[in-house]
Structures are given as C-alpha cells and as structure tokens.
C-alpha cells in the first residue's frame, strides 16, 4: 500500500477536466474508483457531464445552472475513457436546456438533463424564503476530518479486534481521504442543535452580530451556525430562537465539505456548481442505509447499495466551494430495497445555496447468498 506522501492529490479542477472531440462531444480519461467500489465515483461522472453541457452554452450571455436531474445506468469502469455527448434540447430567451449521455465502450452508463437561466434583473426583485440552517452546529475545524476519525479508531484498543482484511480496508480508506481533493468533516452525532423561530425576521437575524464559541474554545465565524447566544444553563434564550434542542436521529447526518485546493475560488459560477454536484454524492445514499441500521455487521447485513438517480437545485450564484459548506442530510423513506435521501447545502453564513435529492438501491443481503461478500464490499464506498 502506498503511503499518503506517495499519493499525488488531484485537484477537483483536474478531476473535472474534459477533452473536446467536437463542439457537442467530449472525453474524460480520469476516473476515481473509491476503495471497494464496483465502479467510478458517481459524483465525478455527474460533475463531468455538467461541465460538458456548460461548454455548449452561448457565452455571450450569463447563463447559470439552476437544476440538474440524472440517472446512473451502469457502473463506470476504469479501463475505458468516458464519452460525453451533449444534445441541445432548447435555447430560449430565459431558459436553456441540455441533455448529456455518458458512454463507455459504446454503451450508455449515465444520462443527465440540466437547465440554465439568466440572473433576475435587479430592477425586478423577487420574494425570497429559505429554510433556516440548524443552530448549535460546531464550526468545521471543531469537527474531526474523516482521516483523523478513522486514524484515531485504528490506534484505539477497539481496532485490535478487527480482521486483517477489515483493518487493511480502513487503512486504505484513510490514505484515500488524505489524498482526496475533497475535505469532509462530519458533525458529531451527540451535538444538540435547534432552529431559529420562523417568525424571526431576516433583518433581525442578519443584524445579530453575537459571536459565540463552540464549547468555549473554538471560535466560529459570525454566522447562523455559531451565532447561538451563550447559554448559562437556564432555559432563557433570545426570543427569536426556539428552545427545543435535540440530537440527530438515525436517519440524519451533517457533513462539512469543501475543496482542499483554495485556488478553485477563482473558477466561474457554473464550475462552482459542478464541484458542488461532485461533493453532493459523498456519503449521501449511505444515510438511507444508516436510517435502517444496516451495515456490514448488522443483522440482516447490508448487501448492496448503489445510486439510481440524483437531483440538485441551485439557489445561489455567489458561493465558493473553496469555503466550507454544510450538507444537512435526511432519509425520509427506505423500503422495497430502495431508499431516498434529501439534503440542503448551507454556507457558513447560513445561506441555503442548493437542495439535493437521491434515490438508490439499499438492499439487505440474502441469507447464504454467494454474492453477499461482493455486494457488501461494493457498498462500503457509499457509507
């Protein structure tokens, strides 16, 4: 196994690089296959498809991506390049629509439809509403990175009980996270959080400049997540804050995410959105398996997990993926061997910039099935 120092970290910009074959056809040769996965990372294929569609836009107008819908048809294999063919479905005055078919070895593996629109003119301001970001969430640097969390586990007494194959898999995962272009820090599940009162005005929320500290030690930015007033242990809090605190339930997960390469801040708006789409596939459908309690050690055991479709709606043109984004994920339904997850991406300042939805296969292993081991290994990358 190579060391982290020997692994070269590829930037997201490189991961989403395309070679033009003709004005509507593009090719990618880079494909990341996560540890124990049966195929390439779906978020990368999604991001590349969006990049191909964006390249066909009329750049004389400021078209911006506002939504994408896609289906994963077959696993992407590492031994063949992927060809992305774009079809111009519509070029209207206010909206532009593209479809993209990604193929390998002459066979479609992925299909996407995406839509672009023009920014709303300043002279025609539109009403706005957003579901608030949860309060009480620790800032990113107060949360352990994935590589720190699993390195600590491997060094703990509990790891002595691991089978050699399981230990090797976790060590490989740590190296993969260290060399990844994406930083992931999961919010601890025992954190208590709450929400702003819906009746609190936007002006009041933004006027409140109180900067609190997480646990009295790590100072967060002046933002919705870290702006909770210091509580002296009593029930008295600001009237604009609901006093109902709770911890995450089994069907919920919160992840701080960003591109490790700060230079991506210089990329244009549509590239930022392609990167967010890339980020949105990390540990997404795994939340549906988490909701059922299924894992490699549960009864019944998790047998297979794979993405079926993926949707992203964008509601901001100003965010940067070089800054931390909080993906608040919930799984409202799992059944019939499938599960649905929903997510909301917030900036540290509390702006809701994108909404995500995905359905995937979430299937228990059949008793004594010969395919159980293979399917279980393929599911690990999605957890």
UniProtKB/TrEMBL annotation:
<dbReference type="Pfam" id="PF13622">
    <property type="entry name" value="4HBT_3"/>
</dbReference>
<feature type="domain" description="Acyl-CoA thioesterase-like C-terminal">
    <location>
        <begin position="238"/>
        <end position="362"/>
    </location>
</feature>
<dbReference type="GO" id="GO:0009062">
    <property type="term" value="P:fatty acid catabolic process"/>
</dbReference>
<dbReference type="GO" id="GO:0006637">
    <property type="term" value="P:acyl-CoA metabolic process"/>
</dbReference>
<protein>
    <recommendedName>
        <fullName>Acyl-CoA thioesterase II</fullName>
    </recommendedName>
</protein>
<dbReference type="InterPro" id="IPR003703">
    <property type="entry name" value="Acyl_CoA_thio"/>
</dbReference>
<feature type="domain" description="Acyl-CoA thioesterase-like N-terminal HotDog">
    <location>
        <begin position="39"/>
        <end position="117"/>
    </location>
</feature>
<dbReference type="InterPro" id="IPR029069">
    <property type="entry name" value="HotDog_dom_sf"/>
</dbReference>
<dbReference type="InterPro" id="IPR042171">
    <property type="entry name" value="Acyl-CoA_hotdog"/>
</dbReference>
<comment type="similarity">
    <text>Belongs to the C/M/P thioester hydrolase family.</text>
</comment>
<dbReference type="GO" id="GO:0047617">
    <property type="term" value="F:fatty acyl-CoA hydrolase activity"/>
</dbReference>
<keyword id="KW-0378">Hydrolase</keyword>
<dbReference type="Pfam" id="PF20789">
    <property type="entry name" value="4HBT_3C"/>
</dbReference>
<dbReference type="InterPro" id="IPR049449">
    <property type="entry name" value="TesB_ACOT8-like_N"/>
</dbReference>
<dbReference type="InterPro" id="IPR049450">
    <property type="entry name" value="ACOT8-like_C"/>
</dbReference>
<dbReference type="GO" id="GO:0005782">
    <property type="term" value="C:peroxisomal matrix"/>
</dbReference>
């Amino acid at each position: 196994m190579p060391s982290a120092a020997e692994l070269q970290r590829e930037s997201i910009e490189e991961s989403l690089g395309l070679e033009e074959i003709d004005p509507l056809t593009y090719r990618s040769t880079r494909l990341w296959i996560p540890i124990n996965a049966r195929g390439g990372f779906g978020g990368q294929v999604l991001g590349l498809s969006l990049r191909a569609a964006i390249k066909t836009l009329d750049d004389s107008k400021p078209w911006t991506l506002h939504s994408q819908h896609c289906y994963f048809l077959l696993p992407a294999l590492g031994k063949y390049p992927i060809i992305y063919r774009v079809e111009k479905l519509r070029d209207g005055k206010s909206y532009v629509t593209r479809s993209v078919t990604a193929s390998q070895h002459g066979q479609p593996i992925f299909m996407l439809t995406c839509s672009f629109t023009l920014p709303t003119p300043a002279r025609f301001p539109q009403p706005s509403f957003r579901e608030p970001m949860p309060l009480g969430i620790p800032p990113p640097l107060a949360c352990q990175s994935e590589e720190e969390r699993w390195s600590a586990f491997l060094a703990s007494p509990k790891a002595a009980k691991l089978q050699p194959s399981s230990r090797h898999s976790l060590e490989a995962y740590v190296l993969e996270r260290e060399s990844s272009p994406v930083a992931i820090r999961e919010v601890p599940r025992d954190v208590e959080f709450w929400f702003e009162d819906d009746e609190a005005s936007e002006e009041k929320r933004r006027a409140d400049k109180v900067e609190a500290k997480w646990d009295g030690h790590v100072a967060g930015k002046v933002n919705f997540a870290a702006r909770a007033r210091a509580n002296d242990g009593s029930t008295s809090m600001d009237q604009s804050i609901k006093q109902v605190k709770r911890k995450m339930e089994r069907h919920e997960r919160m992840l701080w995410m960003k591109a490790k390469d700060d230079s991506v801040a210089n990329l244009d708006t549509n590239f930022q959105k392609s990167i967010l789409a890339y980020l949105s596939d990390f540990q997404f459908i795994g939340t549906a398996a988490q909701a059922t309690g299924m894992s490699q050690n549960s009864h019944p055991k998790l047998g297979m997990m794979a993405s079926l479709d993926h949707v992203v709606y964008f509601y901001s043109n100003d965010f940067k993926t070089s800054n931390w984004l909080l993906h608040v994920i919930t799984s409202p339904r799992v059944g019939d061997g499938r599960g649905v997850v929903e997510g909301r991406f917030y900036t540290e300042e509390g702006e809701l910039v994108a909404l995500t939805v995905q359905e995937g296969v979430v299937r228990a292993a059949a008793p004594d099935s010969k395919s159980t081991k293979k399917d279980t290994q393929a599911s690990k990358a999605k957890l």
